[in-house]
Write a structure and sequence with these properties.
94 residues; 6 strands; six-stranded mixed beta sheet
């Protein structure tokens, strides 16, 4: 399903100063465990073409939404919601 959604960018993987993977959240959070959102409150975003992206504090992400458990190499749930982004741009309302 194609979607467009805005939120706060929380970089997860970086490569040469560019963002490879990030979490999109409805609110910013700090470093404390108590501030961390639940796995169902974030969307894991990667570029559809695999290219790193520039950091944007409040991006609009357009792409294909995927829903379902995705596991990491150790067998833990890594994400429930994912977007394979066709475009990541500054939110026009900011």
């Amino acid at each position: 399903m194609k979607v467009a959604i805005e939120g706060y960018m929380i970089p997860v993987d970086l490569q040469r100063g560019k963002v490879v993977t990030f979490l999109l959240s409805r609110s910013a959070f700090g470093c404390c465990y108590a501030d961390s959102p639940q796995i169902t409150e974030v969307i894991k975003v990667t570029s559809a073409d695999g290219k790193p992206m520039s950091y944007l504090p409040m991006p609009r992400v357009t792409g294909t939404l995927e829903v379902g458990e995705e596991y990491d190499s150790e067998g833990y749930i890594d994400s429930i919601y994912r977007i394979r982004a066709d475009a990541v741009a500054a939110s026009p309302e900011r």
